[in-house]
Amino acid sequence: MSGWGDFAVVMGSATAALLGLLFVAVSIRVEAIAKSAALRNRSAQTVTLLLTGLLAAALLTVPDQAKWALGVEYLVLALFVAGVAVFNNRRAGDESDSSALARSLAAINPTYVTCSLLLTAAVLLILGHRNGIYLLVPALVAGLVGGVANAWLILVKLTD
């Protein structure tokens, strides 16, 4: 999809940087995270969310790709990530974090928001609607914002 290369590079770079920083933070405090189901789940959710943004941006950079092909790729990505999110949420059970940010993220799950927008973009692209690609903007922004919020909760919880 011509004209989207710069957007893909910016979003891919941002999500890759945040993903790398998350790996550093998790590896520094791996013992504390391993002991807490809530921290393990939050870390898994955050990695999944940021990796989704990175993969969506990477798929957008494939040269001379047909709209429908990009739509199929986004469809597969959205369904897979939604499945991973459901698995992570079931595994986590009821988290004990009662902060306002944690409650907001539980109510407005950024992974589900990102997947819903990505899924809608995928269907529109498969059906031949070129403007479906514009739904990628709020999808990736939701992924970045959700990833940062989740990472903040991980860091705050690690200091408890």
Gist of the model:
With 160 residues, this protein is mainly α. It has one domain.
Task: Give an overview of the whole structure.
Helix content is 80%, strand content 0%. It is an all-alpha fold and 160 residues long. The protein has one domain. The protein is elongated.
**What is the end-to-end distance?**
46 Å
The biggest beta sheet reads: none
Strand content: under 5%
Structural class: mainly alpha
Q: How does the overall form come out from the CA principal axes?
A: elongated
Mean pLDDT equals 88
The number of helical elements comes to: 7
Instruction: Give the SSE string.
Output: HHHHHHH
- Note poorly predicted spans: none
Find the count of extended strands (DSSP E, 2+ residues): 0
Radius of gyration: 16 Å
List the SSEs and their pairings.
Elements (H helix, E strand, L loop, with lengths): L4 H24 L1 H6 L1 H24 L6 H26 L7 H8 L2 H17 L9 H23 L2
Helix pairs in contact: 1-3, 1-7, 3-4, 3-7, 4-6, 6-7
